[in-house]
Every structure is written in structure tokens, then in C-alpha cells.
Write a structure and sequence with these properties.
The protein has about 425 residues and is α/β, with parallel strands linked by helices. The chain contains 19 helices and 14 strands. The protein folds into two domains: about 180 residues, 3-Layer(aba) Sandwich (D-Maltodextrin-Binding Protein, domain 2), CATH 3.40.190; about 200 residues, Periplasmic binding protein-like II (D-Maltodextrin-Binding Protein, domain 2).
Amino acid sequence: MKRRILRTCVAACTALLIAAVPVVQAKELTGKLEIFSWWAGNEGPALQALIDLYNKDNSGVEVINATVTGGSGVNAKAVLKTRMLGGEPPDSFQVHAGQELIGTWVEADRMEDLTPLFKEQGWMDAFPKGLIKNIGTDKGIWSVPVNIHRSNVLWFSPANLEKWGVKAPTTWDEFFTTAEKLKTQGILPLALAQNWTANHLWESVALASMGPEKWDALWAGKLAFDSPEGVQAWELFGKVLEYTNADASSLSWQQATDMVVDGSAAFNIMGDWAAGYLSTTKKLAPGTGFGWAASPGTGGQFMFLADSFGLPKGASQRDNALAWLALLGSREGSDAFNPLKGSISARVDSDLSKYNDYGKSAAADFGKDIIVGSLAHGVTANEGFMNDFAAVMEMFLKTKNAKATANAAQQIAAKNGISK
């Protein structure tokens, strides 16, 4: 009897000791840390700011910056898939928060639940509850958001618009009128780049066409992609494409943005990483060197995405990765990274004095606008749908057939579990 009681006490004490062990170990870390992302070129300084902070507190760790170039992670995701399926995951990797991670690697049971880290670091109150919902399931929280980006932004040069006698359009009808005026002056109305930027443009056009409630209904399986609303979105998109450049498929998003800067194009619809590019790389002042507005027809709506990092099961340097994740979620890390990236902090207690006028504007809009998720950047749909949607987009770019494309979109939605 006494032995049974003793064993019970020992077991209970052991459980308490295990529960008390912090997720992020309070010890000097050594070894390596492989950070896998697609932040290169003009986005590199923001990532480097985080690496510098990490090295400051963990000088014994060699950080390996395993960057794979390519806008929106189009190339990095393919490399990551090979490594994850091959049982050689990086210690932590960049991923768009939402279904891009959850519908792929969480569903495949390849990620660790980060709920203990969130609770230890006090993040359950530091991040908006709606954001935590988007990065979690009923089984856990799966990534640490490092920022909030806005997808539906129209970029322009205030000086050029004044010179051409036009204003930033607030609706697509206004855009079409403005576009005709620009064409008479030999100015391209809207700069576009390679395929993924067409997906990016489509989601802003579709949001304007459908409105936020029907946009959300689309991803909840309550509105069919081949419904009249779905067809109308493709019809409007086709009309918008008539005012874009024929060489789009050969350009990067930075080159399309450069067309706005050099005055060969009037507008570009791109996420607000363009703000980081324009202010950090191009050295332009927000408000004077470059201007912005919600994409036509989406005023009062904030289409969001978030870059985040998770912890794959089997990471060889788990403790080092947890220290990296702790930095990403901290106020210090967030406010070192985002002003350079062009994004805003995902935390509710960000120090806005560190941000430029664009960042302050985006933070204000995020606090009051209707929030909807981005398709092109992984919030609303799993990676299977996103991969298939690229083919649907190619189909439309070649045929301009709205009804056939809407039907194809419905088929891939059913295939990937979004719609019946």
C-alpha cells in the first residue's frame, strides 16, 4: 500500500515538473538554425533585421538563411514539398498563415502544435483572436505570424497622376473612364506581371464584384464558383485585363511596380510589400514619392494575409527553432521587421512610432475595415486548390471565356474539398 502511494506521489511530482519546463529553454543555445523562406532581394533587409536580433541573444547559433527566390513563394513551396516529403524539413519555414499551412502540412500531420508556446509567451492576448482562429484548428495553433499584409492596394505616383490630370479611381467604372483618358496620352493604365500577380489582381476584382459577404461564402462552400456572381467576377476581370501590358508574363512584381515609378504605367495592384520596396529599395517617401488607395470597389475592406513560421515535426534543431519563433512573435521582433517589410505588426500592442505613414494608415484601416482573407496568399484555400487555380487562370488568360473558367473553378473547388 505504502509503495503504491509512493509511486503515485512520484508520478504526480514528475508530471508537475514536466509541465513546469518552459517551451523555450532558458539555456545557452548552440549548433545551427536553418531558416527557410522566399524573402530575397528587396525583402532581404527585413529578414536580416530578425536574424541580427536572433544572433544578438544567441551568438552560439549559426543561422543558415536558406532563401529560395520567387515572388509569393512560388519556387520555395516546391522545394519545401520535396524536403518535407523526404523527411528532411528545415528547422522553421515561412508559410502564409491559414489554409496554405493547415490544409497541407497540418493535415498531413507534419507540424507541431504551438499552443504551449503561445501560452508561455502571452500571445493569446497579444494577437487578435480572429487571427489566432485563422492560424489554428480545434487541435492546435500551427504557426507564429510575423506580420499582416494587405492584398487589395492600388499603387500610383501622385506627381504623375497630377501631370496626367487623373485621380486614383475608387470604382472599376471610374477606372475604365480614367484608363481611356490615360491611353490617349500613351500611358498604360495598369501594370501586371507573371501568373501569380494575375491571381492577386483577380482576388481584388472578385472582391469588388461580389462584396465581402459573398467572397467569404465562396470559401465556406455556400456560394458556387460557377454561380452568376462567380461568372460576373470573371467577366469584370476580363474587362480589367484589357488595360494591362501584353508582356506581363515575363515581368516580376518589382518590374511591374517600377513601371509606375518611371511613369510608363499609371497604376499597379499589389500587396503592401510594395510599400517596403518603394520606401526601402527605391528610397521614395510615402505620400509624396508614392501613393496608395484601396483597389477599386474595395474601399472599407481589408484583404489580409500573414507571413508566419511553423515548427515541423522532426526539426533537427528544435530548441533553436523555438527561440526563433519566440523572437518572431515578440513586440521587439515584430517592430524591427515590419517597417522594413512594408507590412504592419500582427500584434495589438505595436509601437506605431516606428512605422512610416503607409504603415500607420494600414494599421488604422486594419482596425476599422471589414477583414477578408486572401486566396493568392494562402488564407482562404488549401495549396491543392491554389495549385489548380494557377491552371484555371492560365485558361482564362488564353480564352477570356468567363463561364467556362467559372465552371473550371467550381470543379477544382469540389476536387479540393471547398465546395460540393
